[in-house]
Design goal:
Elements (H helix, E strand, L loop, with lengths): L1 H30 L3 E6 L13 H10 L4 E3 L5 E3 L2 E6 L5 E6 L13 H14 L3 H4 L3 E8 L2 E6 L20 H4 L21 E7 L3 E6 L13 E6 L3 H10 L4 E2 L6 H8 L4 E4 L8 E7 L9 H10 L2 H8 L29 H10 L11 E7 L4 H16 L3 E7 L3 H9 L5 E7 L4 H4 L23 H12 L3 H18 L2 E3 L7 E4 L2 E2 L16 E2 L2
Parallel strand pairs: 1-10, 14-15, 14-16
Antiparallel strand pairs: 2-3, 4-5, 5-7, 6-7, 8-9, 9-10, 11-18, 12-18, 13-16, 13-17, 19-20
Helix pairs in contact: 8-10, 14-15
């Protein structure tokens, strides 16, 4: 009997241990944080208020909060603003901030920081002037109330308040009279407002972010640490993902062929989800101020000389749609009703003859220096190699000038010191954010990813300015359709197939962001389960 009772007692204890272990395991599955190993592109600043692009944006949205986030339907959701109210005339938007939210140094986040952040973006960001042209002032009646006063209704305003586009930065640190674009605190002892804090920042080597234990959202973030390793070469990323040296690669930069290889690798996943808000388009940007590209006949000749379908089907393995203009084919405002320049070498040659660029005895018409960026090599590398022999067919001798780093390329393009460059940019969910910046006359600035090519047409300005404030969706779509047709007629850019954009992650990475702004949103819910 004693043995029976003893065995029964032991059995109960064992069962209790099993239940407890299972509960602990389930808790760990749901709450484990861990360290996420990812990569970073070259970045010159960690402050998204003064620089666009994923190199700054991906770590930047972890370091800085914003007023709102966006859901899968691109609707605004509370973040640092717990709620808001829009006046009946659409000209006043009042944001109520989360109470007791603090920066990483413990100082309170106030409405004055919101006003300072907006003015910083408006003055320094490549598309700040276009996004916030209608925001006249930000009133700050008290510490937790920010009132946006608009000159006109602005349908794209809320989408512009995501932390990628308008991070909340500390006025008490950055408003000291120094140039905000080059302020040392954008890189040294960075103080943010977001879910992660900077612990180590060694550009071109390693960036380490750690959990902000005093973050204003309870229970967030889950990760203990994010380690960004500098891995510029897409092939190196592939190898590191295969062997587990990297866990997560948003905007991976890999080619379609590399994607097929990784999809077959054990424990590795590839997805194109999460880029709906991005709308990444690739194009040949030409300096329109100088010959030969100040002549529309030359631009149209190049458009006829380039076979975008070949690039899509052969170079990009059929995984990309052929772009037809400034709007991504996934955009709600995309129109296919634009002039097309079908591949036609004879027509290209005739246009060049007409423009006065006749071939010499060797068949040569002119030299072209094509700047190849140090980033996006999965796209720009194959295209640049294609263009050399392809344009030679019409007598254009192309020299590839490869930038050793992002800063060199950006300085050339923003300084207008180039003939042509391969480039790419994001549409973002609303055209006022990612499209207007390239075509407004007033946005011809020495700022990368603004209107660096120097395109200016008053009729285009009028179309874009009307569309920016039009509240009727059908009317707005019609305005943007006319805009796309005009840009195609003028060959402001020559568009290539849209980028093959992907995220690669290993099985032990949980809650990969695949909606809204996807991987360029705060990684508050991600965790690593080893």
């Amino acid at each position: 009997m004693r043995h029976f009772l003893l065995n029964k007692f032991i059995g109960l204890i064992s069962a209790l241990i099993l239940v407890t272990s299972a509960a602990a395991s389930a808790w760990a599955d749901n709450h484990a944080g861990g360290t996420l190993k990812t990569f970073t592109d070259n970045y010159r600043t960690l402050n998204p208020a003064v620089q666009s692009g994923t190199g700054t944006g991906i770590p930047g949205v972890q370091i800085f909060a914003g007023l709102v986030l966006t859901d899968a339907d691109f609707q605004p959701q509370p973040y640092l603003a717990k709620d808001w109210n829009v006046s009946d005339d659409g000209l006043t938007v009042t944001f109520n901030l989360v109470e007791d939210a603090t920066f990483h140094d413990g100082q309170p986040i106030t409405s004055k920081d919101v006003a300072f952040s907006l003015e910083t973006v408006k003055a320094n960001h490549p598309f700040g002037p276009a996004m916030f042209a209608n925001v006249e002032t930000v009133e700050t009646p008290d510490a937790t109330t920010a009132v946006f006063k608009l000159s006109k209704p602005t349908p794209g305003l809320m989408l512009s308040l995501h932390p990628l586009l308008m991070p909340i930065i500390p006025e008490h640190i950055l408003n000291d009279g120094q140039d905000l674009k080059t302020h040392p605190r954008n890189m040294e002892n960075v103080i943010g407002s977001g879910p992660y804090k900077v612990e180590v920042n060694r550009p071109s080597e390693r960036l380490v972010l750690v959990k902000n234990e005093n973050f204003f959202l309870d229970g967030k973030p889950l990760l203990d640490e994010i380690t960004f390793e500098a891995v510029d070469d897409p092939l190196s990323r592939v190898l590191k993902l295969e062997n587990g040296e990297l866990d997560f690669a948003p905007f991976s930069g890999i080619t379609p062929r590399d994607a097929e290889r990784l999809e077959a690798a054990e424990g590795v996943n590839v997805t194109g989800d999460g880029y709906g808000a991005i709308g990444y388009v690739i194009y040949l940007e030409m300096n329109l101020r100088d010959a030969p590209f100040d002549d529309i006949r030359v631009r149209r000749a190049l458009a006829h000389a380039i076979d975008a379908e070949f690039v899509a089907n052969v170079l990009f393995s059929g995984k990309s749609a052929v772009g037809t203009g400034p709007m991504h084919t996934d955009s709600a405002f995309y129109s296919a009703d634009v002039p097309r320049y079908e591949p036609d070498l004879d027509k290209a040659a005739a246009l060049l003859d007409e423009a006065g660029y006749t071939a010499d005895a060797d068949g040569k018409r002119f030299d072209l220096v094509l700047d190849v960026p140090s980033w996006g090599l999965g796209d720009h590398g194959p295209i640049s190699q294609y263009l050399v022999p392809q344009l030679a067919k019409v007598g254009i001798e192309v020299e590839l000038r490869r930038a050793p780093d992002f800063g060199t390329w950006a300085s050339r393009i923003s300084g207008f010191d180039y003939q042509a460059t391969l480039n790419g940019s994001f549409n973002y969910p609303d055209p006022t954010i990612g499209v207007h910046r390239h075509f407004l006359c007033e946005n011809i600035r020495n700022v990368i990813w603004s209107n660096t090519q120097g395109y200016c047409d008053e009729s285009v300005d009028e179309l874009l300015n009307q569309a920016a404030v039009e509240l009727d969706l059908d009317t707005r779509k019609a305005l943007y359709a006319d805009f796309q047709k005009k840009i195609a007629e003028d060959v402001a850019f020559i568009y290539f197939p849209q980028s093959f954009t992907s995220t690669v992650y290993r099985d032990d990475v949980k809650n990969v962001p695949t909606s809204g702004f996807g991987p360029i949103s705060p990684w508050m819910d991600m965790r690593v389960q080893r």
